[in-house]
Specification:
Layout (H helix, E strand, L loop, with lengths): L1 H22 L4 H5 L4 E4 L8 E6 L2 E7 L2 H8 L23 E5 L10 E4 L4 E3 L6 E2 L5 E3 L11 E5 L2 E4 L7 H6 L1
Antiparallel strand pairs: 1-10, 2-3, 3-4, 5-6, 6-7, 7-8, 9-10
Length: 174
Amino acid sequence: MMIATGAAGAVGVASLVWPFVSSMAPDAVTIAAGAPVDVDLGPIAEGAIVKVFWRGKLIFVRNRTKKEIEDAETVNLASLPDPQPDSARVKQGKANWLIVYGNCTHLGCVPLGHEGPYEGWFCPCHGSIYDTSGRVRGGPAPANLPVPPYTFVSDAKIRIGEETKTPAAKTEAT
């Protein structure tokens, strides 16, 4: 009898506490309005592209290979429609991680990864071509795939939607 009473009491307390605890989590509207999203980089294999959503928008998280990085770094910037060095599109010391919005800058279609002559992205809708840095290389797209605000929380985790400035001393030490 005591066990049944204790169990019923525990269920009753849990049913009262649960709505309070769950009310402290951000609701779907808050998340859609821009609550940061954490992405665990550990399971993303070298060369892989993972799709995540932040603020209802598609984000590509790409773990670039050494060859992809070299190809992106050795491009003649004058040949690009929207010139931007690869180093401006990634975080210092983390060149293998490219984080970009996942919609073509022409009309918003979703480009296919590891496609096209530069093995970056190719938009099958209208033929826009992006390199391994997400820079437009051909087709009707007017601009590079934009880089969302993000920061490294640790070596194996990023937070999209929040960008923090690291003091110079810490940047050099990491």
